[in-house]
């Protein structure tokens, strides 16, 4: 097969990487072969290579060969916020939203949306992330915004589930426009092999009951939703004050809890909330780095999982590195509990859970696996193991070595996008220069906008 590629000389973590219990099948001196977009063979290189004598050879240089990473919660539009000075004091979470993020999203135009997405996607490739769930907001440029992002995803050859953030904080007309953008995009991309849509919602405390009724009426079935839940106590406190119930109960009452419901954060919930989430098969997405950065608290993943919740992992726009997020989740969990024994029964499964969730949105039952028939989404991390590795200690290698190492190769649906640390299809210097030409105008618009937005606009 002359169109095949053989990735060899690696430590392949295959098989059980994506099952509920993290005990992968470790193949030293392993190889993965793909033809087109599909993996056709996985195993010891000495056994696999004779079957594909004419395949192009890609050298892992002794590094770890993993399924391409999946990020369940990202914000591409944060890409051009690096170094942005809000020029005002920010003291708590509501001020972070009002004085920074809600000014930034209002300042976005088509050019800024496009470049932000491209910068984030390039970072995904550099981090070995091949599938990403993005949560977008641009109140001054709603119509067609998801198409702009989808065009960038298509050009960069990754897979994505996209949504627009519906909120009433800019008025009910803006909420309806956001809902229509979601519904149009979901329908148009329903059969796309790599780009799908879901319904985006900001958070309960910025959504009127009227809006949720309309959302539930228009979005019945398998659409799903992607929403921030209890990231900060303000979401719970304001939801109860305004609507008489907390955010999880509001979602349940409006029929918006199901297997495709993605609940980002979920920090400040009660036991009964987690039980409701679990009964409906919805997903809680842990974002440890962002939560630490904003000082909003830390999700007790063990507790949420103990109540039956499926818990996945995201970055919330802080970065595109899932291995970094995994390491942060583990270290912060032990720090919060002051218990060096805790976490090993649950936290190793976070990346595997991401794959389980992503399969719900794509027609790909083997997405996130290194196995024949699976999509050829692969990351090679430059961390040759200095000690013995097997299924029992593979997570320790990920945590203490692999998570801090650079990605050597990234392959998405069979296409090599990063080879020997270099982008194959992207000129990073040109992209950075383009971003630097767009960012000053974005920042200028940002600084002309006032804060003081009410949680629920008129």
Can you offer a commentary on this structure?
This protein is 37% helix and 22% strand. The chain has 458 residues and is of the alpha/beta class. The strands form two sheets. Strands 1, 2, 3, 4, 5, 15, 16, 17 and 18 form a nine-stranded mixed sheet that branches. Strands 6, 7, 8, 9, 10, 11, 12, 13 and 14 form a nine-stranded parallel sheet that branches. The N and C termini lie far apart (63 Å).
How would you summarize the topology of this molecule?
Blueprint: E1 4-14, E2 25-35, E3 38-44, H1 45-48, E4 56-59, E5 64-67, E6 69-74, H2 93-107, H3 110-126, E7 129-136, H4 145-156, E8 159-166, H5 172-188, E9 195-197, E10 199-203, H6 209-218, E11 225-229, H7 233-243, H8 247-253, E12 261-265, H9 271-279, E13 283-286, H10 288-294, H11 301-306, E14 310-313, H12 322-337, H13 350-358, E15 378-381, H14 394-400, E16 407-412, E17 415-419, E18 422-423, H15 428-448
Helix pairs in contact: 2-15, 3-4, 3-15
């Amino acid at each position: 097969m002359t169109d095949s590629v053989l990735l060899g000389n690696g430590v392949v973590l295959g098989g059980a990487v994506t099952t509920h219990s993290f005990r992968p099948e470790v193949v030293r001196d392993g190889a993965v072969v793909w033809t087109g977009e599909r993996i056709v063979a996985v195993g010891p290189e000495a056994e696999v290579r004779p079957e594909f004598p004419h395949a192009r050879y890609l050298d892992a240089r002794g590094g770890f060969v993993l399924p391409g990473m999946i990020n369940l919660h990202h914000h591409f539009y944060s890409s051009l916020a690096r170094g942005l000075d809000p020029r005002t004091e920010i003291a708590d979470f509501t001020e972070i939203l009002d004085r920074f993020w809600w000014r930034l999203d209002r300042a976005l135009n088509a050019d800024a949306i496009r470049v932000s997405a491209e910068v984030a996607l390039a970072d995904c490739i550099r981090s070995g992330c091949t599938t990403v769930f993005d949560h977008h907001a641009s109140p001054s440029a709603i119509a067609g915004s998801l198409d702009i992002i989808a065009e960038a995803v298509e050009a960069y050859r990754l897979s994505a589930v996209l949504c627009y953030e519906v909120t009433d904080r800019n008025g009910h007309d803006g909420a309806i426009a956001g809902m229509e953008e979601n519904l149009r995009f979901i329908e148009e991309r329903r059969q796309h092999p790599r780009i799908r849509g879901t319904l985006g919602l900001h958070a309960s405390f910025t959504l009127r009951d009227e809006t949720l009724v309309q959302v539930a009426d228009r979005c019945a079935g398998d659409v799903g939703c992607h929403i921030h839940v209890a990231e900060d106590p303000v979401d719970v406190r304001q939801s109860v004050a305004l609507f008489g119930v907390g955010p999880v109960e509001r979602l349940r009452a409006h029929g918006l809890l199901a297997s495709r419901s993605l609940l980002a954060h979920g920090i400040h919930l009660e036991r009964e909330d987690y039980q409701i989430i679990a009964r409906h098969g919805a997903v809680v997405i842990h974002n440890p780095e962002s939560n630490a950065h904003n000082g909003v608290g830390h999700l007790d993943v063990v507790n949420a999982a103990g109540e039956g919740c499926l818990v996945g992992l995201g970055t919330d726009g802080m970065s595109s590195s899932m291995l970094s997020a995994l390491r942060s989740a583990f270290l912060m969990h032990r720090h919060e509990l002051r218990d060096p024994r805790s976490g090993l029964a649950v936290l190793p499964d976070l990346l595997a859970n991401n794959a389980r969730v992503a399969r719900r949105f794509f027609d790909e039952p083997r997405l996130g696996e290194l196995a024949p028939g699976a999509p050829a989404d692969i990351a090679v991390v430059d961390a040759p193991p200095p000690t013995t590795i097997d299924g029992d200690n593979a997570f320790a290698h990920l945590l203490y070595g692999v998570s801090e190492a650079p990605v050597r190769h990234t392959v998405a649906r069979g296409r090599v996008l990063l080879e020997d640390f270099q982008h194959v299809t992207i000129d990073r210097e040109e992209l950075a220069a383009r971003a630097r030409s767009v960012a000053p105008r974005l920042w200028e618009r940002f600084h002309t906008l006032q804060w003081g937005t009410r949680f629920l606009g008129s």
